Amino acid sequence: MSRRNRRIRPEAAPATPVEASVPVPEPSVSADQLKALTDRLAVLERQQQTDAGPWSPVTARRREQDAWLASNTRTDGPDACPVCGRLGDEQRRLVGTMFRFSPAWVCLACVDVMVPGYGTACFTTRTMGETLDRLACLAAGMDRPTRSFRALAARYGLTFSLAKDSDVGDGTAWSHLGDLTLWREVGVKALRRDDAGFGVFPVVSASVLRPEVEFKFVYDASLGRRSHTPVAKPMDPPSATQAAARLAAEETAIEAALVDQERQAAERAEEAARRAERARIEAEYQAAVRAQEALFEQHRQELRKARAKVLESADTRADFNAIVQGL
Ligand SMILES: [Zn+2]
After folding, report:
1. This prediction's pTM
2. C-alpha 176 – ligand 1 centre gap (Å)
């Protein structure tokens, strides 16, 4: 091949690994885990600051952050948290469209839900709907948030609101919501629902939602007379009894699904244990076979040696006899 040809030949492209598009699961970090992570981050940043020395950019940034956090934190402020209504306690300044008088002073528990990682370089903000849902989960004392919790609470007759939009409340967190025991009960139900893989509303097919049609004898202007015409029947919203019965039926289905899940998990564990036991027995059997084979081999060698020795001694005796006979 000529030099020119070699030059114009396209070079083999380096093999680039084609990344398979793996669906990234939505991170589900509980409030406690998030708190632990932010605390750990703060410790690491401080450690880095100590290692880097007092005049490094890392130290300067940290100092700046600490100053910002201090200027945006107050203790025992005169106003209650506008979100949960808790009076006193440590509060942090928050700017947001949610508040009538922005910025507002919000308690630490609410800030952790609304702006996780507040005061660190990796803070997060959420949409209004998600924030309100998570706040409702906080009010219900749930250890992890579930999707659209406010909608589920509404099905049980509970309406979520912020303390600033309510006149009642005694200065404790979420007292304006009324009976918090009910909220906690619905919170437990939401978690069980989530565990069982149920959504907030039951899955209903479109045909069920389509209004029923009935034929009525109505006046038709185009014909100039009355004729039979299909008319959609108005759909009645479910009565309180029907709604309660539906919720009860869903709860029964959820409990059954959870029992089923537990049974399946137990079956899987049993099968795994059985497989492990089978593997252990097989390994022991193979080890015994190998040991037996080694023993046989050892005996075979010993036998070979003994036979050689016998033959050797026989040869010696034959020589001796020959010598003796020769004499
Ligand atoms: Zn609060």
Report:
1. 0.64
2. 12
